Amino acid sequence: MTTTVHRELPHALRRHFRGAVLQPGEEGYDEARRVWNGAIDRHPALIARCAGADDVQAAVRFAREHDLPVAVRGGGHSVLGYGVCDGGVVIDLSHLKAVSVDPAGRVARAAGGLTWAEFDLATGRHGLATTGGSVSSTGIGGVTLGGGFGHLMRRHGLTVDNLRAADLVTADGERLRVDAATEPELLWGLRGGGGNFGVVTAFEYDLHPVGPVVLGGPIFWPLEQATQVLRFLREFAPTAPDELGVAVVAMLAPPMPFLPPERYGTPVLGLLPVWCGDLAEGAAALAPLRAVGRPVGDLVRPVPYRAVQSLLDLSASPGNGSYWRSHRLPDLSDAAIDIVVDLVASITSPLSLLNGWMIGGAVSRVAPDATAVGPREPGFELRVIANWRPGDADHERHLSWAREGWARLRPHGAGQYATFLSDEGPAGVQAAYGDRLGRLTALKDRFDPSNVFRLNPNIPTSQDLSAIRNLPTSKEVTR
């Protein structure tokens, strides 16, 4: 694309656009092209900061007319930086912040640019919530469309299990209301199929009474006790009450005031239990977990749900380089536990960690084919996450730690979840969707046969499905 065409493009789009259109060299452009992962450095031809669904329509039609790649940005938290592209159009939803809550009907309608912090603030005023992302700056769009793991999922299901409806702009630039009455099959696909079928400008969710105070907080053990704790968690998980969510965080101990200073920078295993229910019952349910071994820090206490939702924010600070690989583990076998302990002991960056979830409860009572997400059986999800500061010359070593750790855990895994895919490419998409892939491909053929929305864990069209194993994987994040 020539410089002359570059200069002409914004004027053509602005004629049908209410929001701001940014191009290289303009004030605000460099800030607008940055995403959460500091390893991503891309330069779109245009950034279309949408003021409403009509702007999204105009941007989609404009990109198609000029044969430009399309990236869709909500919160910008994709580990591969899907929310920005080189030489294309970024459809930026981050200014779409409207949210309305019906307390009596326990329903929320939220614009596609909201973060979970903003969503939880609006619903929390009424003592309501839905399962949402555990890093508060994450956008609701990516989490929802990928499935949606969070502290409430064992009691209230995944985010997609609470998705009632969506407003969608298709690859043709048309607007659709997607719900069980109008487009039941497309709603099924949006519940876990990612951004493959269009741009969601608004979501409608079922809400549940939550808190506003829950019982939760991190517990940390020294690495020498990690095997004991993980074996206990393995035995504890199958009978754990639905009210209890548990996240796993294994890392080098951060300099937090509730930890002994001599532990700072040493390997620790952390569990983050969150009890959503009667606090007295929660204290009794958590007592066995808190009694395991000799924790070096225990911050479990009554705390506002919104505070719990930001407890993992420091592990995902914006601007750092980041890369991960994930597995679904049907069980924490002794061999898998040994690998986890070894990985924590060999962390190469003070910012890296292992993070995951205990799965079960309401999540596992949903039929496997009820949504595009799977599998649903009880077990664990675990990510090996390499993080590094900008300019870290050892970033290749951090990447190798994550990739080699993932490879070591692979014999103990049973598939992946699309929401946590990285650069596994088509093989990862197959592993995530399994026998649901054909059904998703039929939706792709119907709503995006030209694969306009391809910057995501991409669902192939039927034309590409037979060649899926031969497509390359992305390595750009390793720069």
Layout of helices and strands:
Elements: H1 3-14, E1 20-22, H2 29-33, E2 46-49, H3 53-65, E3 70-73, E4 89-92, E5 99-102, E6 107-111, H4 116-124, E7 128-129, H5 140-146, H6 153-156, E8 163-169, E9 175-179, H7 184-190, E10 199-206, E11 208-209, E12 213-216, E13 219-222, H8 226-236, E14 244-252, E15 267-275, H9 279-290, E16 297-298, E17 301-304, H10 305-308, E18 321-329, H11 334-345, E19 353-359, E20 379-388, H12 395-409, H13 425-433, H14 437-447, H15 462-465
Parallel strand pairs: 2-4, 3-4
Antiparallel strand pairs: 1-2, 5-6, 6-10, 7-11, 8-9, 8-10, 12-15, 12-17, 13-15, 13-16, 14-15, 14-19, 18-20, 19-20
Helix pairs in contact: 8-11, 11-12
Keywords: FAD, Flavoprotein, Oxidoreductase
Domain FAD-binding PCMH-type: 40-210
GO molecular function: FAD binding; oxidoreductase activity
